[in-house]
Amino acid sequence: MTRLTALHPDEATGKTKELFNAVQGKLGLVPNMMRTMGNSPALLEGYLTFSGALGKGTLGAKTGELIALAVAESNSCDYCLSAHTFIGANLMKVDSKILDDARQAKSADAKTTAALRFAKTLVEKRGLVNDADVAAVKQAGFTEGEVGELVGHVALNILTNYLNNTANTAIDFPVVKSLEPATV
Hints:
- This is Carboxymuconolactone decarboxylase family protein.
- It holds the Pfam family CMD.
- Helix content is 65%, strand content 0%.
- The protein has nine helices and no strands.
C-alpha cells in the first residue's frame, strides 16, 4: 500500500497542473512517481529541471539510464528499477543483458564500468569518496566536468529512490525487483 498519494492529473491545480501538463505532453502520461512528487510543486519542478539539465550533459542518455539502474539497485528501489529497465529497453533500445549488468556495476565497456562503479561507490560511501576513487574514474577517461555529472546523476537518482521508497509508490511499469531486497 502506498504511503503518499499520487495525485490524479485531472484533479491537479496551479503549478502542479502546469507541470503535469508538460510531463503529459512530453511522455504521453504522468508516471506515478511524478504524480506523487506533485504534492509539492517545488519538488516536482526541481526534479524536472535537474533531470532536464543532466539530460543535456555530456554523459548521454544511455549512461544516465545505466547509472540510474546501478543506484536503484544499491538503494533497493523497485520503482526506479522498473522504470529505468522499461525506459532503457523500450526508449533507449538497450539490450537486456546490458541493463541487468548495470545493476551490478558491470559492463563490457571499461569506461562504462568505471562510471557505474564510481556511482555505486558514491552511494556506498554516502559521497565520501577518496582520492583513489576519483583517480580511478578520471583514469578511465572522464573529465572533471563529467565526474561532476556522474555525481549529479547519482544525486538525482538518490532523490527518486528515497522518494519512491518513502512513498511506496505504486509501480506503473513492468515490475523489476531488487536483487537484494532492502532490510529494515
